[in-house]
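INPUT
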Amino acid sequence: MANITKEEIRQPENLIYKKTDLMTDNTLSYCPGCGHGTAHRIVMEVLEEMGIQDKTIGIAPVGCSVLAYDFMNIDMQQAAHGRAPAVATAVKRLHPEKFVFTYQGDGDLAAIGTAETIHACNRGENIVIIFINNGIYGMTGGQMAPTTLPGMKSSTSPYGRDVHSMGNPLKITELIAQLPGTIYVTRQAVHTPGNVRKTKKAIRKAFENQKLNKGLSFVEIVSNCNSGWKMTPVKANEWMVENMFPFYPLGDIKVNED
Amino acid sequence: MKELRLMKGNEAFAEAAIRAGADGYFGYPITPQSEVMEYLMAEKPEERTGMVVLQAESEVAAINMVYGGAACGKRVLTSSSSPGISLKQEGISYIAGAELPCVILNVVRGGPGLGTIQPSQSDYFQSTKGGGHGDYRMIVLAPSSVQEMADFAGLGFDLAFKYRNPVLVLSDGAIGQMMEKVELEEQRPRFTEEEIIQNTPWATTGKPKTRERNIITSLDLDSGRQELHNIALQAKYKEIEKNETRYEAIQCDDADYLIVAYGTSARLSQKAIDILRAEGIKVGLLRPITLFPFPTEIISKLAGQVKGILTVEMSAGQMIEDVRLAVGCKVKVEHFGRMGGIIPSPTEVVEAMHKKIIGG
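OUTPUT
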């Protein structure tokens, strides 16, 4: 075979994959190995494929993803810690023809924002909630989260989470699946190509539900936090499979097709 | 055509908000302002104008709904009373930081803590000096009648959008609950989608290909840029001070003594002034209508004319600090007030004027 130069390879007709234009060119602020980057990308790919960039408003509250607006090339609002579902409620009620989603972490959604989460879900707000659960407060440096596993070490549970004094991890996704306002509740992951495809499908379904005014769709993504967990990215994913998945099993929890 | 009605202050505010073209109200019940949401729900504004009214799960959620609604270019408002307004401070700070327009009504009751449900003016510091975290100001309008409760809903929206700033209507339990004659403005149309894009090009309405994405945030981790943002906010507040100071000067031209009072205190002070004038003592009333910006200039000017100034407040004396700053040491400035939800009587004000200013 003749020598092919890089320039010859980099022709448009040879392009089989490219970054979606709905991701900006800004360098991601996430740690190498973190699941946020993948989760961001597949949410943006879904919006691009549905052709709804010009109709979508994203809400990202306090946490590692507070700077999501630096990476997602859509109109976005930053929210106070835990308050994204309340913010999204008003945006959707006032702009019912737009697509509205929140992108929240576990400390945000399942601790400080529990009331806003439960009530937005219970009212059946016609929005999408993307919930990244890595069992820890990443941005503030690895403190215990509402979803930290029993015995799991964090900077505020340095000897492991003692459920007798520190309380039990909260399975908020199972909890909100009980509420009549939620139409679709699922738990996914993004650590393998297969899981990325499944999660993307779930996110697509969630936005399609919103398009049909069906009610609230809730997509949990169990993810890692190799920095907070103090592990290499590879080890963190292995630890997640061995420890997080048994406690937070993947799969659909509620699919209401009515 | 304007319409004449007999209404409670809280109801007049609610009706005026609909007529001002409000897009959304988000609230949580608390005495003595619950009539605002009750009136709105009964009126079915969704049918009248398309306005959204939602009872939130908490004051915290309600103010964050306002934050969301304001970000996407809509006219939104909330109302509460003192303990509920304390809960809203986080959201108000975000709204001020992100420079969003909205109207917030505080029908003040006595504190601290759960306090009482009776009228008070003890939230002056919280309203005018910040309240939430960070260097920010709200435009603060102080109604002293049911008519002004109605007028300040529309004026509040106008000022909020003019300056991209939260506007607080600082009322109290007496003005909120009492009934008076009120003249209501005609229905203003709600913003159209085109008007929102035209008038608030910063709003999060969905990014078309033709413009960069809009981001609503108060966050900037770069201290240099955050300082510049703060400098711009302070410049805006200076501009507001220059343009928007409002007050009413009653019988001040020949006054030897002055009372400074707002809201309910201004009403009863006017009665006290009638009594004092019948005694042959020439007293005038300076009623601040905006508490931020504070009418410093006129008070400073009147301080050169009168022999003493009494501030009347239903608090331990909060506004008096701004009056003293305006007066400097030109004349004596003393405070009279009642606390805990008690409204002073005009004769008490007359006595205080004699004891603390004229004879003091």
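end of record. The mean pLDDT of chain A is 96.
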